[in-house]
Design a protein that fits this description.
15 helices, about 325 residues, globular, 2 domains
Length: about 325
Amino acid sequence: MAAIALGHVAREYPHKLDHVLGGDGDARTPRGLHPMFFGSFDWHSCVHGWWTLLTLRRMFPDMAEATRIDELASASFTPDKVADELAYLDRPLSAGFERPYGWGWLLALHLEASRHPMLAESLAPLAHGFASRFAPYLAKLTYPIRTGTHANTSFALILALEWTETFDPGLATTIRAWASEKFAGDRDCQAWEPGGDEFLSTALTEALLMRRCLGDTAFADWFAAFLPRIATRDPATLFIPATVSDRSDGKIAHLDGLNLSRAWCWRGIAPVLPPAAQAIALSAADDHLDSAMPHIAGDYMGEHWLASFALLALLAD
């Protein structure tokens, strides 16, 4: 996974920008716009590519790629590059930049960076800049966004919530209150998934968020009403890995990510379920991991991001 991520976090092209032009002067290269996160096909994939590298660097300090990761991090996470990323974020036309998927991943990256002595403070200004956007956004988000792609609300809040517990307890309270208000009444989820190009389980990311927001007993009660027929593996779609017909198609390749995100969610939910439901959840997680893990490398359309989702799943508890 480290070798995969090192192969793309500094690879500028091909690149898909999330960029609004206000004039001719705004037409710039990815590196010109984002000197720190210009690789990996798009900004958010570069961010979570770096999360993958730093996580693995901490977990496996003696791995062969450690020196290369350290050298690249030292060259990448500099005060001037952080300032440039902040300046981009402060543009009036950047209000919707990477909302909310990239926001959540940036906070996850900062949380991981804070565990590395030489990087502990480098990303803090940028993390707080993104974090400051969550409360105003949630205040006007009348309805949660349940699509299985980048706009999904639950996924971003899961990542953000872990960061807030260390760096912003007030925002943690805001997120928990918002999630409880919007999702507490959900019952008998039909799980109309997968969509043709989705990489997140709309049902299971909601459930994992609620596990993070509620106590174990309250969550168990909520989940029993949310998926009342787990004993018969219904809705069946949540237990069957998605079929990926063409991994060279960037959108269709999203479905490998769906399988990994389901594995992450099932593994994250399982510990607080009753024994029989726990066994079913873990079996579903294994099936989804088995389906997706052979494909985290091979074609760049998946290779530039799937390792991060595989690592999320493997670290879930």
